[in-house]
């Protein structure tokens, strides 16, 4: 049976904790300076109330089995660094998307994003039995596209006029995927890159 983690995932540079109300202050603090919100179809964390609403929505989606949101925290001091989630869960077809990923400015261009994605991928393929993990990003977000390509995700194409992003911008979405057939090589390369034990 295809079943994704709702418990935490732990790495060397990041811990993925299931989202909870207790994360609201930290998410608000780190989320207000993230440039990533411009590319997402959801509003940014511009106030404490917005952060509370964002967490409440994530909890409701988890309760309905539609998404599983995680907060990325620092392993030494517990500081909130960002968030990511499983969404578009297709249990019948053993597929899932990893998305709504963002990091505070201080944590961008660090090992955090790579290791967080590694942990989510590893769980999806090795514990849940996924056949496919997909990602999508705004066609304007070249930094995200390069990061997905460095992970080893394969670019599959562009869905034109796919979503409405912040400010009413009608975005084209670039789709990427990693399959169970790709995972052994992707894992090998990421493990070497991060120098993590297998």
TrEMBL record:
PROSITE patterns: GNAT. GO terms for molecular function: acyltransferase activity, transferring groups other than amino-acyl groups. Residues 14-181 form the N-acetyltransferase domain. It holds the Pfam family Acetyltransf_3. This is N-acetyltransferase domain-containing protein. It comes from Alkalilimnicola ehrlichii.
